[in-house]
Amino acid sequence: MMEISSRNVVEGTSRAPHRAMYKAMGLTDNDLDKPFIGVCHTGNEATPCNIHLPRLAIKAKQGVSDAGFTPREFSTIAVSDGIAMGHEGMKSSLISREVIADSIELMVRAHQYDGLVGIAGCDKSLPGTMMAMARLNLPSIFVYGGTIMPGMLNGKQLTVQDVYEAVGAYDAGNLTLEALKNIENYACPTAGSCGGMFTANTMASISEALGIALPGSASPPAEDERREKMVYDTGVACVQALKNNIRPRDILTFEAFENAITILNAIGGSTNAILHLLAISHEAKVKLTYDDFERVRRKVPHVADLKPGGMYVMNDLDKVGGVPLMLKKLLDRKLLHENVLTITGKTMKQNLDNIALPPSNDDIVKPLANPLHQTGTAVILRGSLAPDGAVVKMSGVKITKFTGKAKCFDREELAFDAVSQGKIKEGDVVVIRYEGPKGGPGMREMLAVTAALVGQGLGEKVAMVTDGRFSGATRGFMIGHVAPEAYVGGNIALVNDGDEITVDTETNKIDLHISPNEMENRRKQWTPRKPNYESGALAKYASLVGSAAQGAVTSPIW
């Protein structure tokens, strides 16, 4: 049965002032008699990922109206990871995920909306929106703003990843300034989220696997006319979900999260998805751990040849059938839970039965019998350097084991300067610490550093280990999310220059080769650091946030 909370706001003589304010915005008594659907978007001029979302929100509102309910548009923040990258601004990125979830919650609770359409584009706005949906547990549906089209230069498809790597090539003397400028000018031609299987496209794909978004909604580009129809249809579907009383926690079951982990590994998606799935599951009150990620990964082949480790972009995947193609292939191999409920009111299997798929292109999506990797690419590591865990993405990485000598940096900028000055050599393990959830705060992404290393030809000749994060555009032997983090005295804080570190993705180990006695002696000498921020949003986040191994979520202190 429909639960209509908005009646608390607009019914009865005592609510005349409330109705008067709605009428000031053009609503009629007929509009006020209908259930209210919040239409939230993260549109702004900070990023091409989100600049078009206000236009898409109009289509979603039209869908809600045509289906017979009253839409109420509102917006929230979104940080551009690409523009915040490589400087102090990136500390705000992960924190924005929590602010997005909190702000959506507050808007919906304050105005007693009955359902929610959430439209998001850049990296943290996708999980932030889905976290709010799981937390509120009102009939809700997610829709992605869409991928950017790839840039073209000399017959080659470009993404923002190519620009970052071009900076490293320029610093190494392997690229002229004119060539760098050309890549910069052509890489990002339209609105939409970064084009490879980076974090935004990964989380969009996951939204379909979770069942919280309409089938086929992830892959159409931002500027494609299908995107507007998909958003309109999402508005209509939200009305139907409210009528049928389908709520996020009916959909976001443990089995749905296993489906999400499956698609993450099959597409070679961003390691950030591990962090975000842990956070969404926390809001949905589903217990999900690193062990679940590793158990599922071992059963799932990696089949999509997508950037940053592969050749193609999201637009290429869209041309051969998009995420439904991937899900259908996995379903046919019995790698998905087929009977999970989705936002359509149908099961995953029923949704896929109704989708006509074009013949697949084996260049873009390999047959499951002949995959790029026999097992999934989002690997969980544990060992003396990361007792609580760490993550690495193996798509496009040829090596599985690396042993080298540590070069330690206590800030990302110090590491980037060392890379730019040619101080990182083959065989080094670059350790960047005090960049974790509390220590940064905010777990900065290290794309500027990793791309510079790749641009210098060191992508698989060095390793990197950090308690921070990596962009979905990162490639190479790069290990992030080391837990416990340095700020709380994790073992990564005790590494010295020259220490030997081994990372082995076949045995899932990450070890610091010093004796237990030496580790204990260093721990006694270690002193906690003062927080980098003592007031404001970053300080508040640092005081409340937990470990990356649990999704870096914030919890109240009672």
Descriptive report:
This protein has 558 residues and is of the alpha/beta class. The protein has three domains: 34-149 and 190-353, Rossmann fold, CATH 3.40.50.2300; 150-189, no CATH class; 380-550, IlvD/EDD C-terminal domain-like (Glucose Oxidase, domain 1). The chain is built from 22 helices and 14 strands. The strands form three sheets. It has an eight-stranded mixed beta sheet with strand order 7-8-12-11-10-9-13-14. The chain has a four-stranded parallel beta sheet with strand order 2-1-3-4, sandwiched between helices. Helix 4 (53-66) packs across helix 11 and helix 13 (254-267) packs across helix 15 (290-297). It starts with 6 loop residues before the first helix and ends in a 14-residue tail after the last helix. Residues 363-552 form the Dihydroxy-acid/6-phosphogluconate dehydratase C-terminal domain. Keywords: 2Fe-2S, Amino-acid biosynthesis, Branched-chain amino acid biosynthesis, Iron, Iron-sulfur, Lyase, Magnesium, Metal-binding. Its EC number is 4.2.1.9.
